[in-house]
Amino acid sequence: MKRLFFLLAILFTIQSAQAQLFSKERLANLETFDNKFLTYGYFLGFNSYDFKIEYENQAQDDNTDILVESQSGFNVGLVGDMRINRNINLRLEPGLYFAQRNLIFPNFEEERDFLRETKSTYIHIPLLVKFSTERLNNFKPFIVAGVSRSFNLSSNQDNPEDNEQGQFRMTSGTGYFELGFGIDFYLFYFKFTPSIRGVFATSNELVADDDPNSPWTGNISSLSTRGIFINFTFQ
User: Fold this and answer.
1) Can you name the residues that pair with 225 across neighbouring β-strands?
2) What CA–CA distance (Å, rounded) separates 38 from 128?
3) Domain count of the chain?
4) Does residue 10 lie in a domain region?
5) What is the domain-level CATH number for residue 81?
6) Segment 122-132, tens digit of pLDDT
């Protein structure tokens, strides 16, 4: 995931540099688009969720750490954008995010014990501040930062069964902070925006097993989501 983030950062940087190097005046598309107070759109994209795990006993090694296998998921949602000034916008981007992570616990032999699939369907609602550069012909790089809240429709927080019965439990609501960047492309009929964003949970999402000495959750002090979103926005 880190390699993907780094590679895309390089590609966006190169694209921005090219836009500045070849900044000779050209025919501008959607010249008055950014003068609107409110604009709307939608986005499609991909996600890769992970877990940050902290342990009660910090003397962990490769033989005792819980392994997290991330899988790619899908995002879809709406965009509402409010203009503050020519370089700052306030954005609301509610969306539906489908994700899966597999947890592999050490020191078990049977799959029913060592494998826990955490399939999640999130309603994700971020409030973001977008800081843009000056427009370069039909390009406009930006960074974005903000906070968000998600609600896991697949949560089993209130399930009376725990890992003894094969149920790994997580909280239904989580808060995050977010940071990312992207480039607005002003096309003839609409504005197209690829962007990449990192999300980091601010709370512990683990619902511990009833047994305080559980081999699954007994040594976990905190389990929190982190992830990368790659979105393609159309306005």
Assistant:
1) 51
2) 15
3) 1
4) yes
5) 2.40.160.20
6) 999 999 999 99
